Structure formats: C-alpha cells, structure tokens
Amino acid sequence: MKLLALLLGASAVAAKFTPDQCPDSYLYFNRTNVADLADCARLSYECTNSSSIFFDSTSGVALPLYCPTKKSFNLFFEDPDLTGPIALPGVGEVHQINFQGGYKLRDNITAAELKDLADKPSLDEADILNYTGGKGLQLLNMSSIDFPDLVNVSIGLGVRIADSGNLSSLTMPKLEYIHDALLLDLSGGPAISLSFPKLSRVLRGISVTGKIDALDFPALNYSHQINVTTTGDLDCVAFAKSVVNTTDWPIGTAGWPASEEDLANMNSSVVCNSKKASVTMYPAPAPQESTGSRSILDFFGNVMLLAILVAGAGCVV
What we know:
By secondary structure, the chain is α/β, with parallel strands linked by helices. The protein has one domain (about 5-300). Helices cover about 15% and strands about 25% of the residues. Strands 1, 5, 7, 9, 11, 12, 14, 15, 17, 18, 19 and 20 form a 12-stranded mixed sheet that branches. A 3-stranded antiparallel sheet has the order 3-2-4. Strand 2 (about 45) and strand 3 (about 50-55) form a beta hairpin.
C-alpha cells in the first residue's frame, strides 16, 4: 500500500512549476499537475551550481555550458482521475515508469486526517476503508499510453503497467533498453496488439498478461525469462520461437543472478499460454564440435525448441 498513491487524491490546486520546484526524483502525476510534471520530465537540466533550468532541445538554441545534464525521473501514474490518452513526448530517458491503480480519498477528509495519513508508516485494511470512505482500488481509465521519444529506462524498476481496465494502445517506438523488467498486466482490458520495434535488452525479464492479439519484439537480443498469458489470438508457438534465443540460458549465467523463482522454473525460458496453444521453450545449449561431426552438429545446432507443450494448436477458435 503506497501512501503517496493515496495522497495524490488530496491535491486540489496546481500551481505552475519553476525548474527548481520540480521534485528531485519522483514525479507523481495526477489530473491537476500533469502538465507541470510533464515539463519537469521533458525540460529539466541540472546545473553545476545545484540549480535547474528548463531547456527545450528542439528550440535551436545552444544548451548553457553550466547546465549540461538532462535530469531523469521516476514516473508514477496512479490517479484514477487521469483519463483519456496519455502522451509524453520529448522524454528520452527515465529511471522507471509505473502505471498502477490507486485509492481515492473521500471528499470530506479533514486536514488533521491528511496529516495523520502522511505520518503513518503503513496502512491496514481498516485505514484504507476509513480514508477512502469504503472504496476499494480504483482502476486507471486511460485509453492510450504513448512515449514517442523514450529510449532508455535505467536504474529503477523498469516499466510496469497494471490495474488498467481501458487501455487499447501502448506505444514506445524508440525504446531500446530496460534496466529491470517489462511487466504489463492488462487483465480485464480490451484486445490489444503490442510491438516494441527497437527494444533490444530487458535485464530482468518480460511478463505480459491480458487479451493480447499480437506481441512483437523484432530487435530483442537479450532478456531474462519471458512469460505471456493471453485470452487473445496470439500465436504462442510463433511468438516463442521468435524470442527463445534471446533468453538468459541457463538461468542466472548472464545478467542478473537467478532468484528462487527462476530456479524453480529454470526449464522454461519462454512460457506462453493463449487460446490457441500453451508453449514452454528454452534454447538449446551450444554444441561441442568434434572431427567428422560438423554436419550433424550444424543440424542440431539449429534446434532451439527443447520443450514444447501445445494444447489445441490445430483447432480454430
């Protein structure tokens, strides 16, 4: 339970930010501050005198020499009142991106209760019912998410989207690198097709859930485990074949060390479950050459499917 997610609902008036008023690292977007925080994410540069400036790199004006460093932020979108399309152009690097449902504070909450809320180290169920007026988790209501210029997601916890019941479009056409994980839980939402045309490295793996009709990672060359669960029309066999050789195999030998969960599933670099098939794959280890066996090894070296369980692959849904 995040206190800050609750506190988002308490903001009623937003003032125009100056560069030095932008938060240091964490930007919590809500319906009243989204334009100001977008400026922080797009335009903030750090100066050598510990101040900050807003600078538009597309303006044609030279960047001041004393403000050389583009600031990078952790972006959080947890306000259920954020609706419609969300687009954040001009942001090339962030620490992490998190879209997650939140809890809305009741309208008659008092200043004393807000202070009490801010002082609490954690919340139990009774607290949540009290501060929200008995309301549960509110789903996000965004129809689309677009980061047209994003290239790197570094340092933080990757890209995480959950509790989104209305998302029909997600685009990050320039995204190349995710330091942690790509976790997309689009359960309960409409059918969606996803493509990450330039994404090449995801250090902590990929998990996608929802009504996924298409999923494409044409540039991927390294990932941890990949797990997809869809009620849509995704061809799991074709998808698994397209990504299996990008996975860290054996688990934990490259990139991040293996977790207990990794070791428990070490024979499943790629797991994909859809209406059409359930598939488990992992790449074949590189063969050891010996005299007179090259042609045989060349053949078996191309076999990347060592485990496949297909359920109903031949049926038409």
